[in-house]
Design brief:
It is a single chain. This protein has a domain of about 45 residues. It contains 4 helices and 5 strands. The protein is about 35% helix and about 10% strand. α3 runs antiparallel to α4. The protein is of the alpha+beta class.
């Protein structure tokens, strides 16, 4: 064995340090690298960001279907089929979104207000027919104002 002096550096073996591991694990050069699943740190954050991006992409792709089911439109099944098979084309996606946004909502009640007026009472011969507000009478040809009772 040879003696080491203070100004001499002796290299016994060369080791590689894996920068992805949290601790320094040295191994001789040329040996295969061990694969570890890093569940903490940047790799786990990258996986959750990837899953988030996939979920956001699916939500954007199926936006017409989500709108159709949220509005409870009568053609929601047609929107789903069109979105599923032709949504990958931009035109198919726009058509599905138009169907979802413009379709008639099921269970929607349309309110119609009808104002019926009471029919004029049948004219009895000899008696005048008065208007509903009581200010005019019908002489058989035209409405005429009632005479003032104050006179």
């Amino acid at each position: 064995m040879r003696a080491c002096h203070s100004n001499e550096t002796v290299v016994l073996r060369q080791f590689e340090v894996d920068p992805l591991l949290k601790w320094s694990r040295a191994r001789p050069l040329g040996y295969p690298r061990a694969v570890f699943l890093n569940t903490t740190g940047a790799a786990a954050g990258g996986a959750s960001v990837g899953l988030l991006l996939i979920a956001m992409g699916l939500a954007a792709y199926f936006a017409p279907t989500i709108v159709a089911y949220a509005r409870n439109t009568s053609n929601k099944a047609g929107v789903l089929v069109l979105n599923l098979f032709l949504g990958w084309t931009f035109i198919g996606w726009v058509i599905a979104l138009t169907m979802a946004a413009g379709g008639k909502v099921s269970g929607e009640v349309e309110t119609v207000i009808v104002q019926n007026q009471a029919p004029a009472p049948p004219a009895v011969s000899g008696s005048p027919v008065l208007s509903p507000d009581g200010r005019f009478w019908w002489d058989g040809n035209a409405w005429k104002p009632l005479p003032d009772k104050s006179e």
